[in-house]
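MODEL INPUT / OUTPUT PAIR
PAIR INDEX: 1
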Amino acid sequence: MSDGVLEVRQRIRGLLVDLFGSDHFAGSVPDTVSLRQAGLSSTALVSLLVAMEDAFGFEWDEDVRPESLRSIESLADHVVSLR
C-alpha cells in the first residue's frame, strides 16, 4: 500500500471525527469493513461524501460505482485513482 493511500485513509478517518465529534467510530472501524454495516447512517455517509469533496477537491460522479462508497479502503482507493 502506498503512502498516498495511507494518507487518504487517515484524512477520511479525520473527517469522520470532525463530523461526529468523537474518534470512537473512526478509530474502531477497520478499513475494509462496510461503513453502513458498521453503523454509519445513510445521512452520515452523505455528510462524509460532501466533506470528502471539500477536503480532496473533487466532485463525486453520478455514475460512481456503489462499491466505491463501501468502506474507508474503497473511498481512499477512489480518491487516489482521481489524482
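PAIR INDEX: 2
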Amino acid sequence: MSRLIVISNRVNPPLEQGGGAVGGLAMALAAALREYSGVWFGWSGQTTDHYTGQIAIQRVGGVTVATVDLDEQDRLEYYNGYANKTLWPLFHYRIDLTAYERSFDAGYARVNRRFAETVRPLIEPDDFVWVHDYHLIPLANELRKLGLRNRIGFFLHIPWPARRLLTTLPKHRELVEALFAYDLVGFQTEDSLTAFEDYVIKEGGGTVGPTRVAKAFGKTTQLGAFPIGLDADHFAKAAESPEGQRQLARMKESLAGRQMIVGVDRLDYSKGLEERFLAYEQFLADNPDQREKVFLLQIATPSRDEVEAYQDIRGRLDAVAGRINGEFASVDWVPIRYVNRTYRRDELAGIYRAARIGLVTPLRDGMNLVAKEYVAAQDPDDPGVLILSKFAGAAAQLSEALIVNPFGREDVSEAIRKGLAMTREERLARWRPLMDNVTTQDVTAWRDGFVAALRATGAPSEQQVAG
C-alpha cells in the first residue's frame, strides 16, 4: 500500500491517546497516520542560529515524525509574519489587523522552498503527499520544481475569504496560482469552496466544471469540500475514563447546585471571546432571576504571544471579565471563571459533560472541533445544549444546535436563556442527530474521503510538474 506523507507547519502528535491539548489538526492527523504507514514532516517548533535542513526522525504516539529546525529569521518572517500577521487575519475577515510587509512575503517563500528541499528525499515514488493549511500553500509548487511527480493534495483548515477581501492581498494571484500545483485542493465547507471558485472564475479567468474540476493559469486541479471530524468514539470514551470521571465529579462538586456554561478556545480574536463575554453580560442583565444560578467557565489557552494582536485581546478579555465579575458577583458566586491554561482531552471530556451549555461562538472558523467534542462528551441520558455560531464551519453539519449570530448580544443571550430552560426531552431530541453526525462524519470519514479523492485524481499533469 502506498504510504501517506503528511506535511504541516508543526508536528505535534499527542504523546498518548488520552492526553494532549484540545483536539484540532494534531489529533486529526495522528488518528489518520495510525491507519497509514508513512511520515509526518514539519517544523519542530525550535529555532537554530543557522538553518541546516537536518532532519530528526522519531516515533511518537504511534506516528513516525520527521522534524526540522528553522532559524530565527524564518520564525519572525514566515511564522509570526506572513502566516499569522497576514494570512490568518485576512482569511478570518479581519482586514483591519492584516499586515503587509515585503520581508514577510520573502520569508514565507523561503521557508516553503526549504521545506520542499528538505522533505523531498523522504518521498518515495508511490507515496501520496498531503499538505496542510495556510502556512504551506506554495509547497507543491516548490516540490514540482524539484521534479516531484507524486500526487499531492492540499487541505485548508481555516476559512477561504471572499474574493473582494482576498484581492486586498499583494500578490494574491500568485498565491492562488500556487494552489494549482496540487492535484486536489480541499476546503472545510461549501462556503469556502464556492468563494475559491468565485476567485478562479472572476479573477483568474478560469473555469470550474460540474465535477468541481478547476482550470486556470494553464493548469487543472480537482476541488472538494471535506469537513473535518474528530475521533468521536474515543472522545466519548474519554468522558467515561477514570480521569474524565474524576474531572466530572470535581466539576459537579464545584457547581454547588448551579448550572454551568462552558467555552473552550485558543486565545484568538477569531473566537469571539470578547463578544461572548458581553453577550453573557447581556444575559445576566436581561435575566436577573438567573444570577447566582449559573456561571460561565471560559478556558482560553494562550497562543502566539509575540503577535501584538494577541497581546491586545488577552488584555481586553482580562478587563472585560474583571468588570463583569465586579458588577455582578456576590460573596459566594462569580459569574465568569476565566482560565488561561491547557487541559488534557480526558479532563476536557469530563468538563464538557458537567456543562449544561456548550457555548461555541467564533466570529469566523473553518470548522471548530470543540463543538463536536462537546457533543461527543455528553451523557446520552441527560445531554447538554450546544449553542453554535452560524459562522463556524460546523454549523453546516450541526444544524440541531441553537445557531446564533455571535455579533448579536441579544441573540446569544436569548439562546443561553432557552438552553438553560430546555426540557430533557428537547435536549435529547437535539443531541441524538448531533451525535449521529459527529459519529458518522468522524476523522476516519474525513481522512478516507480526502485520500480517496486524491487517489482518484490520476497522475499530475506536465504543467503541474513543470511548475
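PAIR 2 NOTE: The chain has 17 helices and 16 strands.
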